């Protein structure tokens, strides 16, 4: 997508934002469709969903207020990175 938009003469910084936004929209729509299909087949354990939802909203709120809050829980250098 980046290559396609750049060939149309769009600036690179705009192209990257548009590509990421399009990707996120695709993920959102695909996951909503999947959730709907699973719910239609009674393949969702709603009790677990209801129990987990408040924690997800709290984590999202913390992340919005402090984007670096998660770094304290990750090893220096990130997960899977070892320092020599």
Give a concise summary.
The chain has 84 residues and is mostly helical. It has three helices and no strands.
Protein architecture, described:
- This protein has 84 residues and is mainly α.
- The protein has 2 domains: 1-43; 45-74, no CATH class.
- The chain contains 3 helices and no strands.
- The protein has helices at 2-7, 12-40, 46-65.
- The radius of gyration is 19 Å and the shape is flat.
What about the largest sheet?
Answer: none
Low-confidence stretches: none
Counted beta strands? 0
Q: In total, how many domains does the architecture comprise?
A: 2
Q: What is the 3D form?
A: flat
Keyword list:
single chain, 84 residues, mainly alpha, 3 helices, 0% strand, flat
Topology of this protein?
Elements: H1 2-7, H2 12-40, H3 46-65
């Amino acid at each position: 997508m980046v290559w396609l938009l750049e060939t149309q003469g769009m600036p690179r910084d705009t192209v990257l934002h548009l590509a990421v936004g399009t990707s996120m929209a695709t993920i959102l729509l695909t996951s909503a469709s999947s959730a709907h299909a699973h719910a239609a087949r009674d393949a969702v354990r709603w009790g677990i969903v209801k129990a987990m939802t408040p924690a997800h909203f709290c984590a999202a709120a913390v992340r919005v207020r402090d984007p670096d809050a998660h770094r304290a829980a990750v090893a220096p250098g990130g997960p899977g990175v070892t320092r020599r």
